[in-house]
Amino acid sequence: MKKMFFLCIAVILLQSANAQTTEKRLAGLDTFINRILKEWSAAGVTVAVVEKNKVIMTRGFGYKDYENKVPVTENTLFAIGSCTKAFTSSLLAFPMKEGKLDLDKPVTQYLPELRFIDDELNNHVTARDMMSHRTGLPRHDLAWYGSRTKRDSLIYIIRYFEKTAPLRRAWQYNNFMFLAQGVLAEKLSGKSWDVLVREHLFTPLNMTASNTSMNDHVKSPDYSFGYNEKDGAITKMKFMNIDGIGPAGSINSNAKDMANWVMMWVNGGKFNGKEILPAAYYNQAISSQMVTGAGLPTKEQPDVFLSNYGFAWFLANYRGHYRVEHGGNIDGFSSSTSFFPTDSIGIFVSVNQNGSPIPGIIRNTIADKLLGLKYKDWHRTQKTAVDKAKAAAKEKLKADSTQRKMGTRPTHAITDYAGTFTNEGYGTLTIEQQKDSLVAKYNALTFKVKHYHFNYFNFIPVADGVDAGEDDAMKGQFNINIKGEIESLSLPLQAGVKDIEFKKKVETIDVSKADLEKYVGEYELPGPTLVKVYIKGEKTLVAFVTGQTDYELIPVKPDVFNLKIVSGFSVRFEKNDAGEVTALYFVQPNGTFKATRKK
Predict the structure, then answer these.
(1) Are residues 545 and 495 in the same domain?
(2) Which controlled-vocabulary keywords does the entry list (predicted)?
């Protein structure tokens, strides 16, 4: 019995020793990471570190399930967000090698279903442009975020997105262009993006636990929940399924698998001596394709400068070392994948905290230790930056309150603001009246709609029934047509372009064919101009005006029809006491015109 007890203690001690980082250069890292989790009120983090062909560390810290205190392990899956992008761009290396794809030819030659807002982009955008965020399109993220729209439909709506710069003149991050790369890879191979990632990357890299969908994430035996932090409180977030935009950010992975991914990049595209990525692609991927910003050294960071972009990688001079890196953020998770090609070091960090600076703090601290650099307090640096951002947000909110016109009222009753609003690129937004309040729903997002001034309303995001602050609100303007009706809603969903306008859907009524027949006949406008009203098909009322065209009429109220193709125009039929139609009125922005029915 005593011998067995001694053996158990030995096993426990051995497990404890294995749980610690043995690399001398990383001495004290475990204590540091646990302190960072505490100071930033984070649940857990997973870390992988490699050097040349050796895995130095794959570890989990904290909790994957904070409520039940279930610890993170090296096998715990985290959503890596936009760290997915390098996987997607890498898929294009294979048709390049086979001669099926030229990165510098117009991409519409290979993917004709991809169309842009003008011919400059249609005729000239290349795969290289999409891979380096230089198409001229800004993000337009709210057109996909939380949407259940499938990939082919998301590709289609790109044609409606306004650009904010000419082609190749500015670097602008765009998730849609990485979706398009995934669809391009599918088109060239005949296989789905998910299958291509698995066959070309996961399998040869022995990334056996990784997957490409949140549906698969939650089926894993070891996965993490995502969390948000506010005022020190840690709250669980709902998983966001982003399969539609998947090639831009839907991979879930763990420290063990991601160690192999960065090891491949550290070794020039090879893993265990076998080529995974062709050298021609690898070299271009980590070479500057576009300048992202000035990238000047600052007084605070004189040894961190240069800000360029390759193929799904940010490039920088980090304290005298060439660093290749990309971050990733999706609901409840923040990640960073990085490597130093000339130093043969790779680092992956993912935290189950929304919009968190922790990956950068841990990444830089590990890099400094491995590269033998002088200590820097990256925790304090990030804390200062976050505090400045919070102060700036407060000042913005304060400035906003000074421009508000107090004591104003909306022009319409609250019921008139409810309805369905649509935009060709951004889809459908609905506003419902709940007692004396308005609630808007757009994709997976919910907003409490509160009057600001005149016909401007604050759209305040609501998560799990908890109101966000007024500083998180965006202002929407309800627009009125010539007839005094609420016609549309404009929302600032994308900086740099005019507000996105959602047209209010006109509620129609059902009119029987027998009742429609009462309107059929000929009417005379002054001039004289003849108006002929007839029924097309089963139940479509049409008005033909001499010298013009046929106008389809949509029933909206008893005896009132809107013109389908012309906003702000309607037709009202007049009846006598016997219920007979005697005239019609064209109600339009420049006046109301009566046409008398011919007997």
Answers:
(1) no
(2) Hydrolase, Signal
